[in-house]
Amino acid sequence: MHAWLCENPTGVDALTWKELPTPTPAAGQVLLKIQAASLNFPDLLIVQNKYQMKPELPFVPGSEYAGVVEAVGEGVTHLKVGQAVACLSGTGGFGTHTLAAAKLCMPLPAGFPAVDAAAFIMTYATSHHALVDRAALKAGETVLVLGAAGGVGTAAIQIAKAMGAKVIAAASTDEKCALCQSLGADATINYSTENLRDALKTLTEGKGPDVIYDPVGGEFAEPAFRSIAWRGRYLVVGFAGGPIPSLPLNLPLLKGASLVGVFWGDFARREPQANAAMMAELAQWYGQGKIKPVIDSTMPMADLKAAYAHMGSRGVKGKLVMVN
Predict the structure, then answer these.
(1) Mean pLDDT in the chain?
(2) Other C-beta atoms within 10 Å of 132: how many?
(3) 123-264: which CATH topology?
């Protein structure tokens, strides 16, 4: 097998494409032949030693991937050789093969292509957990999605619309706003050229959004929170925009609003049955055509460093997927 090996987490340039012995699955594991692996923001942080999870060196990055089971370890009964699965394990995806814990593998129904499957779990699980579980979103409510043209943002638009909500999508270019409208967003805000608070006031007739989905952080967090509706829920999803913002705590008090943390990974670990039920619902929604990953582009696995550069340019709409 071959894989991108991180022996020193000083950044993307330190990754090397190496031939490695193909491993044998231990008890509870499966060996997967990887067909596709998506690039997520944590995949950049982890090779820079900036992610909360710090794997033992050396490691193969690539948190999310899809492929075919080539061998099963002792005790694995729900997966068979030749079965198509998707997996989010945190590492291992940027190669031709990997070992994965069988319990982390999501069996794929017929007609679920590997490229879509590799771009599915992290964004849709995060967005479903955020909007359904943490925000208790109701039909008819208004959701503001920040960073709406990215991976989790596009998933959030689709899930909110599937739940009957009104969606205001905020993004940094007119092209990204057009993408959001094509996914069902009811209105868009280009926050490079428009004042976020003024636009929200106009679009919500002064009421403000009921739910704010924020995977960006940075400079827009405070003005967005100042615009939130009474009893609004502000979802803290991530900080792709850079600095972790500091919000004045009088703002939740004045609006009777909630500041809600979203950590899907720990939800999946602590509440596995609830997570499994959620994933089953998402797979069903995919089959019904309610949700579908937005693929910016696919690139050969050998071009991983170029893919990282593309992601770093903030020009990505949806997900980048590496293919073998």
Answers:
(1) 94
(2) 16
(3) Rossmann fold (3.40.50)
Q: Please, what is the Cα angle at 59 between 55 and 62, to 5 degrees?
A: 90
Spell out the domain ranges in the chain.
Answer: 2-120+293-323, 123-264
63 and 121 Cβ atoms separated by less than 8 Å = no
26-80 tens-digit pLDDT: 999 999 999 999 998 889 889 999 888 899 999 999 999 999 999 999 999 999 9
CA–CA dist 234, 86 (Å, integer): 30
Q: Which two tokens stand for residue 315?
A: 């020009």
**Which CATH entry fits the domain spanning 2-120+293-323: 3.40.50.620, 3.20.20.300, 3.90.180.10, 3.40.50.2300?**
3.90.180.10
Model-wide pTM > 0.70 = yes
Structure tokens at 180: 């959001």
* pLDDT-derived band at 316, boundaries 50, 70, 90: confident
Say how many Å lie between the first and final Cα of the chain, rounded: 12
Strand order in the sheet with 166-171: 187-190, 166-171, 142-145, 211-214, 233-236, 258-261
